[in-house]
Amino acid sequence: MLNEVQSERTLTWIADRLASGHMSLFPLLPEYRDRALRLVELSRRGPARGLDFPEAYCIAVAEDRGYVALSENGAAYSAQFLYTTARVWRAYEVLWELRRRGLVPDDVIYVYQEETRHKFPQRDVERWRSYGSSQSARGRPGS
Fold first, then answer.
1. How many CB atoms are closer than 10 A to CB 37?
2. What is the DSSP string of 105-124?
3. Which of these, 80, 31, 19, lies nearest to 55 by C-alpha position?
4. Is the pTM of this model over 0.85?
5. Looking at the structure, do residues 23 and 85 belong to the same domain, yes or no?
6. Residues 100 and 125 in one domain
7. Are residues 54 and 73 in the same domain?
8. Rounded-to-integer distance, Cα 78 and Cα 72, Å
9. β-pairing, 87-89 with 68-70?
10. Range of the domain at 97
11. Which of 5, 18, 87, 130 is 20 to 30 A from residue 70's alpha carbon, by CA?
């Protein structure tokens, strides 16, 4: 949701990605709107918090196109386990994947938390630590 971006640096990054073709903006298309509304309705019946329309729309696009939706919204994250085939990643999963590929240092999660003031759940931080230990001990990721 572009209107939520407040940082000029972030807007510049987005503009660069749009210009290079590595990112797309989707207009409100009827097929995605309809699927998003169904997701919102479905989520209101379920065990988790209900989805808001912007997150549901992103999930509908991701589901149809095979993309990964990015969201820190708990309802959106839960949706992938409850009623959609779309994958939903938080910043944690993005950092995990970057680390797995060797593109960021092991301490990036701590730097991220300090710089953004966003604290990951303790279970995620423990998982991050145990991955590092299993890498050192066995040379491959832990489960």
1. 14
2. -TTHHHHHHHHH-PPPPHHH
3. 80
4. no
5. yes
6. yes
7. yes
8. 11
9. parallel
10. 92-138
11. 130
